[in-house]
Amino acid sequence: MEKLKSVIEQLEQGKVVSNTENVKVYEKSFKDHEHVRLLMVKTNGNRYIVTVGEGTLFDELQGKNIGNGKVCPLSHENRLVLNRYFDFTVPRAFGTKIATMGLGDRLGIASPGHIETIKGHNVKPILAQQSIRELSLTNRTMNDMLDAAAFAVFQEGYEGGYGADGDHIKQESDIKIALELGISMLTLDCSDYIPTGIDAKSLEEVRTEFEKLPQDIQEYYNERYLNQIFDVNILSLSFDEETLIKYVLEYNEALNYMVYVYNEYISKLDRNFDFEISIDETETVTSPMAHFFVANELTSKGVKVNSLAPRFCGEFQKGIDYIGDVEQFERELSEHALIAEYFGYKLSIHSGSDKFKVFPIIAKYTKGVVHVKTAGTNWLEAVRVIAKTNPDLYRRMHAFALENLDVALKYYHITPDMDTIVPLDSVSDDNLADYMNNDAARQVLHVTYGLILTAKDENGAPLFKDEFFKTLDDNEDEYTRALVLHIGKHLETLGL
Ligand SMILES: [Zn+2]
């Protein structure tokens, strides 16, 4: 703390000192707000906001008094203070006219790199984006995620606005919590309400099921869809009995839930909000016709969505490129894009990390109005930095990931070709980072992140976590460079 004395003295005179041996100064964070000056610094691996001056902002920030100033930890309470005085630190919605990129940050340290990456691109960042699954696998809370994003924009002096997505939320109780904590976007995961296997059934089988629905529901759908032609931009869509029945059986329950959540929560909010519907985390592929059916029902029931995530054909596995028929993907994506445009929302692409084969197609048909989610790939970039800067730690993590892969496969669907992963003892330290160019190794390390970060030794101490974070913190500029390169490649191929 004594090391910060001179920072405080200089700050009183309105000067921002440069880095010293013991103190890293985040110059872009400097703020002079109604007689109170603030500056973010790091010493001994901990970040603080140093503040001097007079006024309520100074008084409200909690910290340790040193000289005439105060040294404030990056606590949840202090984040709330920043939110009250600096609007740009509060998550905001972006509506349907501009591209957004979900940049999930599992570690709580990737956002500065993400902010650097989006500069000069036609896209707004959703810096906070974690699913309940990701949060629980890493022992983090939604507040941890929101705090990290707010402090990152403050650190970088980034005032362009950012979003916070309660990603893949299913339960009503989680929706309530997330909304109260101040998210600006909700991705409602409806997969629990979408039965699988309907598509494979015969007309007779599905007809029997359909006839079990209440009479008025059957009539409602029949009247609205049979013997009609729907003109959607240049598409002309019509439903036969079998198609309609299958969509009803697949989506009727999910639609009820979407409408319920919208009416009960989203429509009652007194702030701008991005509401996303996700029907992607299911085996039931969303054909363009099914997409239209869902969107048409939502619209007729007054539900305003900002984005919708279909389950596309082929496979969007974590951390690797698209698997599947690219031509079919292009055909269907062009129709999905037309449907989204017709109903006035953005198409949302989930598991968008590393899908370079299809990014140009997405760019072509969504014309810069799209939401793309990434998350795991920035963890892999962190692993790449570990491989380069702390080979010993990388080796232990790699071995652990291979040993514990079976556990991770309960949560994630991947199909790595394990034979392509070169044995660890045949790779020199200098070449360890090459594992991050191998699809199978990427996937193994991708899905085991939660296990790696929460693993404990026999005494209950973290096996990797502390060393992992310290290594990245010591090499934060390297991590930023890796993200700018890798996420930047995403933005470029997406034409954003
Ligand atoms: Zn998804």
UniProtKB/TrEMBL annotation:
Domain of life, source organism: Bacteria
Binding site for a divalent metal cation: 168, 318, 350
Coiled-coil intervals, chain numbering: none
UniProt keyword Isomerase, yes or no: yes
Segments passing through the bilayer: none
Cofactor: a divalent metal cation
Keywords recorded for this protein, A-Z: Isomerase, Metal-binding
Catalytic activity: keto-D-tagaturonate = keto-D-fructuronate
Pfam families recorded: UxaE
EC number(s) from the headed UniProt entry: 5.1.2.7
Alphabetized InterPro entries for the sequence: UxaE
A GO MF term: metal ion binding
Residues the record marks as active site: 167 (proton acceptor), 276 (proton donor)
Summary of the function given for this chain in its UniProt record: Catalyzes the epimerization of D-tagaturonate (D-TagA) to D-fructuronate (D-FruA).
Family membership noted in the UniProt record: Belongs to the UxaE family.
Protein name per its UniProtKB record: Tagaturonate/fructuronate epimerase
Organism: Lederbergia citri
